[in-house]
Amino acid sequence: MTKKEGGFLISEEDIKKRVKELADQISKDYEGKQPLLVGILKGAFIFLADLIRELSVDAEVDFLAVSSYGKATETSGEVKILKDLSESVEGRDVVIVEDIVDTGLTLRYLYDLLKTRKPASLRICALLDKKERRQVDVPVDYVGFEVPDLFLVGYGLDFAEKYRQLKYIRELTPEEVKNI
Ligand code: 5GP
After folding, report:
1. Shortest CA distance to 125 belongs to which of 73, 65, 50?
2. CA distance 37 to 123
3. Taking the domains of the chain in order of start, what are their residue ranges?
4. Considering 93, 99, 102, 158, which one is annotated as catalytic?
């Protein structure tokens, strides 16, 4: 992780390395099992795609789509399910895969929701964690990087649907926010 002239940046190389480390840990923890990775759309789709290809255990995939910030950069605290899971999670070893934990409101809601559906186990894997912003407690078992309180884009993370395709993660400057 580096802070360059252009602002905060996590390079493609650093992401690759850390995703592999997370996948190795998950593979170890779920040895002999077949976890169901639940990706939170849209932000987690790239992370999930890279993570699953580094796993050495068989895994299945499902997706949940939740309402996002839209054009604002602050969470409203309201979570709306736009697309629910396509399969039951009862009796499954579920790993929620999320791009970033900020206030924790989204994951707290989703964790509690999935818990009511009686999975055999339920864990959370988040690529980024803005720990200092947390408003509610949420059990994050696997964290890629702890990041400062900046608005980040790239590697699946967007601002007004832009920047998702970047291979690295970087800070979006207030100047750039203004110009969109
Ligand atoms: P929370 O409910 O934890 O406050 O927010 C989680 C969601 O907010 C994430 O899934 C993500 O969609 C969005 N979010 C939080 N921080 C950032 C950020 O720095 N950049 C982007 N693009 N989205 C963020």
Report:
1. 50
2. 10
3. 15-168
4. 102
User: Rounded CA gap, 68 and 73, in Å?
Assistant: 10
Q: Is the CB of 126 under 6 A from ligand 1?
A: no
CATH architecture of 15-168: 3-Layer(aba) Sandwich (3.40)
Tokens of 136: 């509610």
Q: Name the pTM for this structure.
A: 0.93
Distance 31 CA to ligand 1 centre (A): 31
pLDDT tens digits, 4-30? 566 899 999 999 999 999 999 999 999
CA-to-CA distance for 117 and 64, rounded, in angstroms?
Answer: 14
* Residue whose tokens read 């395709």: 165
Atom of ligand 1 nearest to the CA of 138: 3
Q: What is the dihedral of CA 46, 118, 103, 99, to 10 degrees?
A: -10
Model confidence at 73, in pLDDT bands (50, 70, 90)?
A: low
CA of 156 to the centre of ligand 1 (A): 11
